[in-house]
Specification:
Elements: H1 3-11, H2 13-16, H3 22-25, H4 27-38, E1 42-43, H5 44-51, H6 55-67, E2 71-78, E3 81-88, H7 90-111
Antiparallel strand pairs: 1-3, 2-3
Length: 113
Amino acid sequence: MARGAQSERRESPANAAPELDRLIHERIRLGIVSALAANESLSFNDLKKLLLTTDGNLSVHARKLEEAKYLVCEKYFEGRLPKTVYRLTTTGRQALGRYLDHMETLIHSMRAR
């Protein structure tokens, strides 16, 4: 591929959509990553309340982010009660940054029309 064509592809908003991180783009996963970017860590219950979702839904989405190395999950007991805490990884923080940059570019290009 010619260098100019490659550069043109990156700058063209119409061609930018396929580069959108689909893992983060889903509403619950974007909420998880965003909440963790604003907090050092959050418990499973905190995320569930914040995102107004169910245990099962949060578990599935958090597991996908964990598999992608976007977050880490720590499980332990406080007394006799199990506790699950999530933290955003450097990889997850970078992915969120790229996603936000991408969305800003799309928004800017649409408003410029």
